[in-house]
Each structure stands twice: as structure tokens, then as C-alpha cells.
Amino acid sequence: MYTSMPLAVRMMVKNEGYRSFFKGLTPALLCVAPQTAAIFTFHNLITKLVSGTRLTADAELKVFGNLVVGSLAGLLGKTVVYPLDLTRKRLQLQGFEGRKGFGENFSCRGMFDCLITTTQKEGFLGLYKGLSPSILKAAVTTALHFTVYDETCKILSSVRMKRSV
């Protein structure tokens, strides 16, 4: 639809005004804190559940355990907030009537209207349309975040212990 970023900016301002840059901001902001809280909650719960299994050693998760626990936490956390993520995406896509072949054009007047309209037109499961690729991405990235963080902490802790000896 646009041939360059500057053209996209000019056309968006011209056709929709500066507000077009903030479509989907409310659900995006409302999505961040609950998703983060859900991910950390699920990570802690799952870590406690796998304590004492082959995934753990000395009450600390091994790398594989971190990957498994992190991916499950990401999957569950994303699933909890996915309706807000879908709403954000649909609000951002409004005004792209030229995108033929990508499903019907969706129009709503804001976050709550989008949630209600989606449920009315597509049922409750419509709020979870496109969930699979989204949770796959969340599972992989969350697994990597927790694993890199935990392994970095272990390395720094062992370096600190060697220096104090």
C-alpha cells in the first residue's frame, strides 16, 4: 500500500490525522502488565511443580528445564491476554481496505466495541483467532528470556564466589 516509510507517514497524517499513529494503544498498554504478571506467576508455579524432578538440580533449573518452564509460562501468559492483543491488531488494521485477500475488513469504534463486535460476529472463540502463531512466538521468546537471565545469574554468581575466595 505504501512504497516507503515517509510516504506512509504523510498519507496517514493526511487521511486520518495524527491519531492514526495511536490506534490500538489502549489495548496494547492494558495488555503489557497483565501479560507480564501472568508470565511470572506461571513461571513461579511451574518451577515449583517441577522442583525435585529430573529438570532440576540442587533446587535450580537446568538449561533444558528453564527452556521448558519459560515456554510454558509464555504460552499460558499470552493465552490469558490474547483477546486484548487481537483487539490491538484489529484496531491498527482499520483503514486498510486495499488489503484484498486477507479476510474481511473489520471496523469498530474502540477497544470495547471491538471486543463486543468480535464476540457478536464470531463468537467467544473469535477472540482467539490467530492464537497459534502468537503463542508459538511467546513460548520461544519467553523461554529464551528466562533461560538467558537465569544462566547469566548463575555465571555471575560463580564469578563473584571465585573472587571472594
Brief account:
The protein has 165 residues and is mainly alpha-helical.
What average pLDDT do the residues reach?
85
Element pattern in H and E: HHEEHHH
Spans of 5+ residues with little confidence (pLDDT < 50)?
Answer: none
Continuous helix count? 5
State the end-to-end CA separation.
63 Å
**Level-1 CATH class name:** Mainly Alpha
**Strand order across the biggest sheet?**
1-2
Spatial extent as radius of gyration: 21 Å
List keywords for this structure.
MCP_dom_sf; Mitochondrial carrier fold; MCP_transmembrane; 5 helices; mainly alpha; 165 residues; two-stranded antiparallel ribbon; transmembrane
Walk me through this protein's architecture.
The chain has 165 residues and is mainly α. It has a single domain (27-164), classed as Mitochondrial carrier domain (Mitochondrial carrier fold), CATH 1.50.40. 70% of the residues lie in helices and 2% in strands. The protein has five helices and two strands; from the N terminus they run ααββααα. α2 runs antiparallel to α3 (63-93) and α3 packs across α5 (131-164). The longest helix has 34 residues, at 131-164. It is elongated and about 65 Å long. The model has no long low-confidence stretch (mean pLDDT 85). Keywords: Membrane, Repeat, Transmembrane, Transmembrane helix, Transport.
